[in-house]
Amino acid sequence: MREESKSIIIQENLAFSAKTDVGRIREHNEDNFLIDRSLNLFIVADGMGGHQAGEVASAMAVNLMREAVKEHIYLLEKFNKDEIPIEKIPEARQQVCDFMEEAVKKASKQIWEESQTDPLKRGMGTTLSALLIAGGYGFIAHVGDSRIYLLRAGTVRQLTEDHSLINYLLKEGKIKPEEIDKVQQKNAVTRAVGVYETVEVDIMSFDVVPGDHFLLASDGLTAYLTEPEIPPYLTEEDIEIIPEKLINLANERGGKDNITSVVVRIIDVEGVAQQRCQQLALRIETLSKLPMFRYLKYNELLKVFARMSHFTAGPNTKIIEEGTEGDEMYVIVTGEVKVHSADAVIATLKDGDHFGEMSLIDRSPRSASVTTTTPTVLLKLGRKDFFSLIRKENEIAKKILWNFLQVLSHRLRTTNLELKGAMEIQKIEDLTDAIEGID
Asked: Which of 311-315, 333-337, 389-393, 426-430 bottoms out in mean pLDDT, i.e. has the lowest?
C-alpha cells in the first residue's frame, strides 16, 4: 500500500495584497491586519471598545499571534521543505493546530490583563481570523465574526463560522433569514479575543492546492458582499487592486463600519490546479455521501478529512484480516474490494462504499476479510483520530453520533424484520409437519 504525498506550497508561489479603510461613518479605524511573508501568516482583526481601545486590542492580537507562531518556525520549515515523514504528518498538523489555539488564548489573556490596567480600556476586545499556510496545508484560527472565504474551482466556501448573535439565533431556529433585520443588536458577537481572560477558539486544518484563492475580511466588508459576488473579484488578474475594489464596493453600499480585506492566492505554477481540485473534490464528495457524515457542512467535512489518511492499494491487497482486532474505518474513493470469509465471497464494494465503521465504536474482532480486486484509492479514519474529532468538535460530534444512531436503528429494524420472516417460515414448516402427521 502506498500513502499519498502532498503538494508543497512554497513562498514564491503565494501572492497577496491587503488594504484597510475607516469607512464612511466611523471616525477611527479599529481594524488591523497582518501579512508576514516569512511565516505565510495572514490575519484580520476587528477591534471593539470605546476611546480607541478596539484599535489597541486588534493591534495587540495580530502582533501577539505573529510572535507566538514565530516560536514554532522550525516545525513550519519542516512542512515547507517536505521533511516530515508521511506517517507523521497527522501528528505534525495537530501540533500546528494546538499552538495556534494556544496563541489565541494567550493573546486573549494578555489583552484582558491590559484592559484591567486602564478604565478607558475596560471591555476592549477583537475578532481574529488567521490563515497560516505551511507545505500543502492551510491552518485557521478564528474567533468572532470576521470571515475567511475559499474560492476553489469556481466555488466559494465560507471556512469560518460567525460567532454572532444573528448566527446563533439562525442555528437554533429562533429566527428565519427574512427576520434578521428585526433583530436588535444584530452586530453583537458571542465570542471575542480579550473581552474575557480566556476564549474558545475555532481551529481547522485542511489541504490547499494550487489555484486556491482566499479572502480574509472584517464584517465592514462582508455585511455588503454576497458569496456569488466574490469570484469575479478574487480572480482579477492584478491581485494588488482587489482589496481596494472590495473596499470601494462596501463604501458605495453604506460603509457603516471599518473595512478590511486581505487577499491570498496560490499560483498554479505547474498547471496542476484542475487535476488536484478534481481529486480533492471527489474525496470530499465521497465523504459527504456517507450516512455517518450526512448533514455536515463543507468546513466540517474538511475537519473530518484532515484526520484521514489517503492511500492507494494494488490488486489482491488485504486491507482487513478476519478475526483480527480492528480500529479503523475505510472509504473507497475509486476501485473495488471483496468482503470474504476464507474463499467465500460475501459482498463486493465499489466507489463510494465504506467498511469497518463499527470498529470506531468497539474493538471486536473483524467478522470478515476485505481484499482489493482492482487498484483502489482509499481513505482511512483511525479510532484515535475519530475520538479526537468527537472531543474537540461539539457540533460535528452531535451530527455524527445522531447519524450513527440512525444507522444502528435502521440495522436493528432490518434484523428484526429478517428474524420475523424466519420465524414465520419456521411456523409454516411446523404446520406442514403436523399435517403430514395426521395422514
From this structure: 426-430
Residue type for 143, please? V
SS3 category, 83? coil
Domain count, the chain: 2
Q: How far apart are CA 120 and CA 28, in angstroms?
A: 16
Q: Which of 220, 242, 271 is the endpoint of a domain?
A: 271
Q: How far apart are CA 324 and CA 162, in angstroms?
A: 45
The pLDDT tens digits of the residues spanning 346-404 come to 999 999 999 988 888 887 888 899 999 999 999 999 998 999 888 888 889 999 888 88
Q: In whole angstroms, what is the distance from residue 213 CA to residue 46 CA?
A: 22
The half-sphere exposure of 427 on its side-chain side, counting CA atoms within 13 A, is 6
Q: Please identify which residue in the block is written with the cell numbers 465504506.
A: 354
Q: What is the CATH number of the domain that holds 293?
A: 2.60.120.10
- Of residues 93, 118, 132, the one with CA closest to residue 9: 132
Residue type, 285: E
Which residue, among 145, 134, 113, has the nearest Cα to 44 in the 3D structure?
145
